[in-house]
Amino acid sequence: MIVYSAATKRYPNGYEALKGVSLTIEKGQLVAVTGHSGAGKSTLLKLAAGIEFASTGSVFVNNQNVAQLKPAGIAVLRRNLGLVFQDHKLLFERNVFDNVALPLEIAGFTRTETGKRVRAALDKVGLLSREKAFPVALSGGEQQRLCIARAIVNRPAILIADEPTGNLDADYAATIMDLFKSFNQVGVTVLLSTHDQAGLARLDCRRVQLSQGSVEQGNADQGSAVA
Amino acid sequence: MSAWFNAHQQALARATARLRAQPLASLLSTFVIAIAIVLPLGLYVVFNNVVSATSRLNTDPNMNVFMKLAATDAEVKAVENKLRIMPNTASTAYVSRDVALAELKKRANVADLIAGLETNPLPHAFTLRLKSTEPATIAAMRAEIAALPTVETVTVDFEWARKLARFARFAERVVMLLGALLSAAVVFVVGNTIRLQMLTQKDEIIVARLIGATRRFVRRPFLYFGFLQGALAGLFALAMVVAGTAWVGGEIRALAESYGSFAVQGITADLAIAVVLGAGALGWIGAYASVGMYWRQVE
Fold first, then answer.
1. Which chain A residue has the Cα nearest residue B209?
2. In chain B, which among 201-220 make CB contacts under 8 A with chain A?
3. Do the chains contact at A79 and B3, CB–CB below 8 Å?
């Protein structure tokens, strides 16, 4: 469960990316955060992953106040989340297999267990046949699927994806959205940001619309979740 | 425990992979570190051999008291009693003129000369071991003994030994100082290598941190790298010193044989292990310091 309680994010230059956002994402929900560029979508997601911290208010992930976690606690929090980045953040010196294996290396899995899990994750995103390829040889859609494989390889209970279809054409975007839908169907809480209306149409999910750092529509506290 | 072991195993594997990834660069920087280790290590081996060679020399402070030829046994006894109770006397050894002559006769090159003498030209003598080597104390003692009417001469013959001991202490300190300075050089060389690695692996560090890596996880392969590079450099340095010792050892043995038995002391197993582990530890320290210093730059 993710709970935003009057969370405000103000940057050193005075810009307020989020303004007192209160939002509760229940376990097992699939929530799509929408809004124009600069609405605060990415910041909202970063607060949950402990990449940014609220200036005022608080963010709880699985009942833990993210701002009060020590660096080692933040690392543990992130290990328990699956993070998908808009710019993929892939390692181009590592092949597909090794990119996906990174979270398992961090978690201290054995080579055998890592191999099993990596191949299972690659199979889910349809990249099993490309395990020895390097990211530079993959298409944009494949790179994003690789990023998703890395996010799910540790079997996280919460998946956070920032604009996962941002740079993809419609066909690829639909495939990616279907993947998130399938993860949610097996109980994974999914929080994603997007402005891909076509992709959203494929998801039977709650939508939260942000505008200039505030929740405009879909705030659970307002009881106006849009399905 | 299993996760901890796996994490270390993976870190070691990544460190060795980094060493192998750029073999020439790794070899060159390891060689530079090895040279920094060779200098103090080589000097230490030389110093050790000098100490070993001089340890058989009598370097205790001695004073020789020669009686007048006319001194009677009673006068000799009186002087001996006086010498014994002097505050700076550690021990006394009496050498009678007959014993001295007998010893002199044993020397082949003077035996014929001695045989031609009608009387024993050697005086009774005492050899004193002294407690203090303070020049002022010795000078006062020497003057006091020389003033005795039955004493012919007093010689103090250990200044060279004191100079040798001082030189040994000086050399020991030079080796230590050089060792400390070049240890710092090892730390800096490894630190710089790690800094460059951190910069080239900036993306990997950032991504790893984003997906849950602790600082310890990121730092661990660098520490192993530093240790491996240091330990490898220690091995290279040992090989160089062993080769050098073998090269000059034959000449030194040939030279030393004319002065008595002397064996060149090389590197013992204990020293070899200490050098490899010590160099590894220096590499580890360099890596740790470097990661700490450049962490912010990368993140």
1. A75
2. 203-204, 206-215, 217
3. no
Q: Where are the beta strands (DSSP E) in chain B?
A: 62-67, 89-95, 125-130, 151-156
- The encoded tokens of residue A125 equal 């995103």
Output the CA–CA distances (angstroms, integers) from residue B255 to A79, A127, B267, in the order listed: 69, 74, 21
* Residue A30 β-bridge partners: A190
Residue A111's contacts (CB-CB under 8 Å, 6 or more residues apart) are none
The rounded distance, in Å, linking the Cα atoms of A99 and A102 is 6
- A157 interfaces chain B, CB cutoff of 8 Å: no
Residues A219/A208, Cβ–Cβ less than 8 Å: yes
H/E run at residue A200: helix A197-202
Q: What percent of chain B has pLDDT above 90? A: 36
| Residue B211 to residue A103, Cβ atoms within 8 A | yes
At B222, list the tokens: 């660098």
Give the total residue count for chain B.
299
- The CB-side HSE value for A213 (13 A sphere, CA atoms) comes to 13
ipTM associated with this complex: 0.86
Contacts of A5 (CB under 8 A, 6+ apart): A22, A57, A58, A59, A60
Range of the domain at B68: 62-157
Residue A106 to residue B296: CA distance in whole angstroms: 21
Is domain A1-80+157-164+188-193+204-227 annotated with CATH 3.20.20.70? no
Residue at which a domain ends, from B157, B190, B210 = B157
User: Which residues on chain B are in Cβ contact (under 8 Å) with A78?
Assistant: 210-212
* Residue B67: closest CA among B110, B18, B125, B109: B125
Q: Which residue of A has its CA nearest to B8?
A: A108
Per-residue pLDDT of chain A (227 residues; tens, 9 = 90+): 899 999 999 999 989 999 999 999 999 999 999 998 888 999 999 999 999 999 999 999 999 999 999 989 999 999 999 999 988 899 998 999 999 999 999 988 888 999 999 999 999 888 999 999 999 999 888 998 999 999 999 999 999 999 988 777 777 788 888 888 999 999 999 999 988 787 788 887 899 999 998 988 765 444 333 33
Q: How many CB atoms lie within 10 A of CB B231?
A: 21
CA distance B235 to B222: 20
Where would I find the H helices in A17-139? 41-49, 71-79, 96-107, 111-124
Query: Domain ranges in chain A?
Result: 1-80+157-164+188-193+204-227
Distance, CA of B36 to CA of B189 (rounded, Å): 10
